[in-house]
Each structure stands twice: as structure tokens, then as C-alpha cells.
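I trust your eye. Have a critical look at both lines of this record:
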Amino acid sequence: MHAPDGFIDGPTSLAMGAVAAAGLAVCVRGARAELDERAAPRAGLAAAFVFAAQMINFPVAGGTSGHLLGGTLAAILVGPYTGALCVAVVLIVQALLFADGGLTALGTNITTMALITTLVGYPLFRQLLRVLPRTRGGAAVGAFIAALVSVPCSALAFVAVYAVGGTAPIPIGTFLTAMGAVHVLIGIGEGVITALTVSAVLAVRPDLVYGVRDRLPVPELRIRPAPAPGHGEG
């Protein structure tokens, strides 16, 4: 999914850079309402997890492989605006330090992999929580479906960008079929990883999952008072 340098022509890359910059500006403003002294460290952890998970490739079909995009997962954990920023930071670091995705294609990659995935995945997750059981299992199913759907949508957005400014000699129909088929399978892997991660966090600290705060009951932490001095002494 990481577009390399030269895969998209200059004018289209500039336009996608402007789209990405505008989208990230909106996310910066929106993240102010999501972040507090407790959420800020979680955002860093979410970005670190997405970065590490994206380095792990899993086989898909025909010798191809896929990796986590992480937009839906990050959005569920820390909020849609902050989640998009987390993935964008990961993509910038990967491009600058690991040459994973071209610098001229950074706007395209941020738009398709950070903005589109959160824009599709998080609202869908929230809508699914309305109809699924208000349990950890229901949230995991919602996370699976939302992440699964977000990946082909991201791929279709990339195909649309390629249709406008692609430079490779690949017919658009062939490119669409290949991207769609492969990314449905990648989406299944993304859904499994997202569901397992969300379920694991909900099992221990459901109050830390932003996307379920007003949908799932969160157990109260009760601290037993210390016994009074001399209590129980006979």
C-alpha cells in the first residue's frame, strides 16, 4: 500500500499533499478534545504499536503479503482525530528513516492509509456498537468488521488516485481488480489483529478504549479504605 516515489505523477502528488495537510490540520484541532494528561501517553503507545505491527508482514495469496494499516485500531483506542495523527506520524517516520513509501508520495500515503481508514473505520465501528451486544465480544466483532471494511476502502481510494495520476503502465481495470482482491484478504488479517487487540485491552482496562466509553459499561474502581488504627486488636 505504501506508494513509492514516481508511482504517482507530480501534480497529483502535490494535490494529495494538500489534501493530507488539510486533513491533518483538522485532526490537530479535533485531537485537542480527545487528548488529556491520561490520553497523551496512550496516543504514543498506539503509534508505537502501529509502527511495530506494520513491520510484520503476513502472507496473503499468490506470493503477496500484507501488513496492518492500523487506522481503525488507533481510532478505537485513542479517538479518530488522534488515531489518524498517530498513523500519519508512523508513515512519516517510515518514509524518512526506512524509505518505506516515497517522500513525494507521502501525501497520498497519509490520505489513503491514515485519513481514509479512520474516516471509514471509526464511524462504522460506532454504528455497529448500536446493534451489537454491549459486551466485550460485541465490541471485538464491531472492531473486526470496521477494520476489515476500512482496508479495501483505503485501497479503492489509492486506485482512484492512480486513475488520476498513475505513471505505471498498468491498465486501471487490472489494477483495480488486483488491489481490491488482495486488500480484502489483507482486511481480514487487519480485522483479526484489531479485534484481538481491542478485546485484550477491554479485558483489563476498558476505560482506556476511547471508542466504547459511552457504549459499554465500565466497571468502577473501588478502593477499600484502610482499617482504622487499632481496629481488630483485642
In short: The chain is about 65% helix and 0% strand. Residues 10-212 form a domain with the Arp2/3 complex 21 kDa subunit ARPC3 fold (CATH 1.10.1760.20). The chain has a mean pLDDT of 87.
